[in-house]
């Protein structure tokens, strides 16, 4: 961590006393989280334990069925898609969809995570439906984006393969007791896995939301859960100096209170790019809130930003280095890359090029990370590093749990509810009104009388 004043000079950074001053708040927050967990309100905290058997069942289902399909398509959005993308791109070959040998008999994975017609049409046109399985994921079972995707995919399957085939080409993940997807899945005889009610979308990647697609694309989901469980044990203390989730939460909180609300996650490993995207949602949707727990208007929330090293050194780093003192950079560093490559050795006689010869790409990217870290630190720019010894299912599981818990503790520090998202409802309701959903006529009226631009 390069966020302490004794390392970065007096101007920016925090003393150990600043951190210690938040211990009481952390202790109270820890107690609240444990009580809520015991009361069954935060079942995402229990997934590493409660979902061991379910993971095994999902794994068996995937192993038995995956050779029937060349394509696995996730129909979901936000918390029902970003974790799926992050796990797959972190753990599988970067060109998994293009390389048959990398897939080792598993289907290609597509996660459109949007309703852009150009993209969706292009995907549906490309798929051989006979060899495709769609995983429709919606905890609420009513979200416009996955449900519209599902309606279209279902129609195409029924038209091309016959209505009797629907159950062979869909698997659903939804809430057991609410929403419309469960009703549809039952009517169609679609295999269904459940999201526990108190596992919110952005905290659900270790539930069937993320596990089904991961298992189909050959990821060791039991290791993923084992890694998360390992981190849960490591973080089973309210002592913030011993609990990495709480310590990072405190440091980010101090920074935000000190006028540094921009939280940049910058992996120096391309495979972790989508993990930063997952973090961006987790942090934004959980912590950006108008009201505190007592109902006072607070309008809090740091702004998460995803960046990628070394790519964004040529795009963002100038701003991070010399722009406003409003950012914290969380670097993700990988000690051992899967697969390495030596830099070519031609032109050893040419100055300005020859220094690259004899080095490897892991040396290059990690040196660039360390150089950027030092440059930021020298410029009094707050930063910290999360190190992956290597990126595998176990370490990724740890990382996921670490940041979920960090987010939950941050909610406690801000004294807000980190597990709801009332702010996204209004826009959705206008859209429902315009599209003609029952019960939303007043929203349409308000929409139609909106001021002219
Ligand atoms: O984190 C969240 O709660 C949201 O991002 C949801 O995951 C997203 O809106 C999709 O919701 P659902 O799974 O109910 O369709």
TrEMBL record:
Q: Localized where?
A: Cytoplasm
| EC code | 5.3.1.9
Q: Which Pfam families match?
A: PGI (PF00342)
Record's GO cellular component terms: cytosol
- GO biological process: what's one of them? glycolytic process
Q: Which residues form the active site?
A: 285 (proton donor), 314, 428
State the Gene Ontology terms under molecular function.
carbohydrate derivative binding; glucose-6-phosphate isomerase activity; monosaccharide binding
Its recorded reaction(s) are: alpha-D-glucose 6-phosphate = beta-D-fructose 6-phosphate
Broad EC category: isomerase
- Tell whether Glycoprotein is among the UniProt keywords: no
Say if the entry is tagged with keyword Transmembrane: no
Keywords from the UniProt entry:
Cytoplasm, Gluconeogenesis, Glycolysis, Isomerase
The record's annotation in InterPro entries points to: G6P_Isomerase, Phosphoglucose_isomerase_CS, SIS_dom_sf, SIS_PGI_1, SIS_PGI_2
The record, for CDD domains, names: SIS_PGI_1, SIS_PGI_2
- Per the annotation, which location comes first and is thus the protein's main one? cytoplasm
The pathway this protein participates in, as annotated, is: Carbohydrate biosynthesis; gluconeogenesis; Carbohydrate degradation; glycolysis; D-glyceraldehyde 3-phosphate and glycerone phosphate from D-glucose: step 2/4
What is the purpose of this protein? Catalyzes the reversible isomerization of glucose-6-phosphate to fructose-6-phosphate.
Q: Could you say which protein family the record assigns here?
A: Belongs to the GPI family.
Protein name per the record: Glucose-6-phosphate isomerase
This chain's source organism reads Halanaerobacter jeridensis
Origin organism lineage? Bacteria, Bacillati, Bacillota, Clostridia, Halanaerobiales
């Amino acid at each position: 961590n390069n966020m302490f004043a004794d390392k970065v000079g007096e101007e920016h950074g925090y003393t150990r006393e600043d951190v210690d001053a938040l211990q009481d708040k952390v202790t109270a927050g820890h107690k609240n989280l444990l009580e809520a967990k015991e009361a069954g309100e935060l079942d995402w905290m229990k997934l590493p334990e409660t979902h061991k058997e379910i993971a095994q069942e999902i794994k068996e289902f995937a192993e038995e069925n995956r050779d029937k399909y060349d394509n696995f398509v996730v129909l979901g959005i936000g918390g029902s898609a970003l974790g799926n993308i992050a796990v797959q791109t972190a753990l599988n070959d970067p060109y998994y969809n293009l390389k048959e040998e990398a897939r080792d008999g598993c289907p290609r994975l597509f996660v459109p995570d949007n309703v852009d017609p150009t993209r969706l049409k292009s995907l549906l046109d490309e798929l051989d439906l006979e060899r495709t399985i769609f995983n429709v994921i919606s905890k609420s079972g009513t979200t416009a984006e996955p449900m519209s995707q599902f309606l279209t995919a279902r129609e195409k399957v029924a038209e091309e393969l016959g209505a009797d085939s629907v159950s062979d080409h869909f698997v659903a993940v939804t809430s057991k007791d609410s929403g419309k997807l469960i009703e549809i899945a039952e009517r169609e005889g679609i295999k269904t896995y459940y999201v526990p009610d108190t596992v919110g979308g952005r905290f659900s990647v270790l539930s069937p939301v993320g596990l089904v697609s991961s298992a189909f694309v050959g990821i060791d989901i039991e290791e993923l859960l084992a890694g998360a469980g390992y981190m849960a044990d490591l973080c089973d203390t309210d002592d913030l100096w011993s609990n990495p989730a709480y310590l990072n939460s405190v440091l980010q909180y101090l920074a935000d209170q000190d006028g540094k609300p921009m939280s940049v996650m910058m992996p120096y490993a391309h495979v972790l790019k989508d993990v930063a995207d997952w973090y961006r949602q987790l942090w934004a949707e959980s912590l950006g809130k108008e009201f505190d727990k007592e109902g006072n208007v607070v309008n809090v929330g740091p702004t998460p930003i995803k960046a990628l090293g070394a790519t964004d050194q040529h795009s963002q780093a100038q701003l991070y280095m010399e722009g406003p003192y409003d950012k914290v950079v969380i670097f993700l560093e990988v000690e051992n890359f899967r697969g390495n490559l030596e830099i070519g050795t031609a032109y050893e006689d040419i100055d300005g090029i020859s220094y690259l010869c004899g080095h490897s790409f892991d040396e290059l990217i990690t040196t660039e990370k360390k150089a950027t870290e030092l440059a930021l630190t020298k410029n009094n720019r707050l930063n910290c590093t999360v190190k992956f010894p290597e990126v595998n299912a176990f370490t990724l599981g740890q990382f996921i749990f670490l940041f979920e818990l960090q987010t939950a503790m941050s909610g406690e520090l801000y004294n807000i509810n980190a597990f709801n998202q009332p702010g996204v409802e209004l826009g959705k309701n206008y859209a429902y009104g315009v599209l003609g959903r029952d019960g939303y006529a007043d929203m349409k009226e308000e929409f139609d009388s909106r001021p002219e631009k």
